[in-house]
Amino acid sequence: MNWEEFRKRGADAAHWASDYHRDLRARPVRARSKPGDVLAQLPLCPPDAAQPVDDILADLEQTILPGMTHWQHPRFFAYFPANAAPISVLAEYYVSAIAAQCMLWQTSPAATELETRVCDWMRQAIGLPEGFSGVIQDSASTATLCAVLSMRERALDWAGNAEGLSGQPTLRIYCSAEVHTSIDRAIWISGIGEANLVRIPTGGPTRAMDVAALRAAIAADRAAGMLPAGIIACVGGTSAGATDDIARVMDVAEAEGLYTHVDAAWAGSAMICPEFQNLWAGVERADSVVLNPHKWLGAQFDCTTHFLRDPATLVKTLAIQPEYLKTHGADGIINYSEWSVPLGRRFRALKLWFLIRAHGLDGLRQMIRNHVDWTVALAQRLAGVPGFEIVTQPMLSLFTFRYAPPGAGDLDALTQDLVNRINDDGRIYLTQTRIDGALVIRFQAGAFTATAEDVEMAFDVITELAADMRPV
Ligand SMILES: Cc1ncc(COP(=O)(O)O)c(C=O)c1O
Question: What is the pTM of this model?
Answer without folding.
Answer: 0.95
